[in-house]
Amino acid sequence: MRTTTRRTSRALAMTALAACGLTGLGAVPAAASGDVLLPHPGPEGLVWVQEWTGDGGVVSAGVWESLPTVLTVACEGGGDVRVTMQSQGTEVAAFSVDCPAGEAGVGSVSMDPGVVRAGSFQVAVDASADNIRWALTVTQPES
After folding, report:
1. What H or E segment, with its residue span, contains residue 10?
2. pLDDT tens, residue order, the chain (143 aa)
3. Cβ(84)–Cβ(94) under 8 Å?
4. Based on the number of CB atoms within 10 Å of its own CB, is 55 exposed (0-12), middle (13-18) or buried (19 or more)?
5. CB 126: neighbour CB atoms within 10 A?
6. In Å, how far are 38, 124, 132 from 105, measured between CA atoms?
7. Contact 128, 77 (CB under 8 A)
8. Is the Cβ–Cβ distance between 62 and 76 less than 8 Å?
9. pTM for this one?
């Protein structure tokens, strides 16, 4: 039970840190639409960017090397996004997601324990157009 409490506190702290580290190169958040691209990741979540448009990303910390890490990105708007993740200065994931108009496209990568090393990590999202709406989660499932 103590681990769950610690993990929940860590997840909340990482979400707050991620919100502070959110960057957009000239982009502004999309208007609230009621359509959530990705739901809140729950207690396994390290980062949740609920919604952003255009280019952006997050910087966070607090990864456990002993757990797998999952990066998921959803987007829509008629284009694509290129997603990269770095851990301690090393690229650990790179993929693209098609972002259809009017519906969400989703892409995800699962990394084995130890791929994302303890300490800080960053995720960059490069959108093909300023109107591409996206969301992302970084989770560390315990099972």
Report:
1. helix 2-21
2. 333 333 333 333 333 333 333 333 222 233 334 489 999 999 999 999 999 999 999 999 889 999 999 999 999 999 999 999 999 999 999 999 999 999 999 999 999 999 999 989 999 999 999 999 999 999 999 87
3. yes
4. buried
5. 16
6. 11, 17, 11
7. no
8. no
9. 0.77
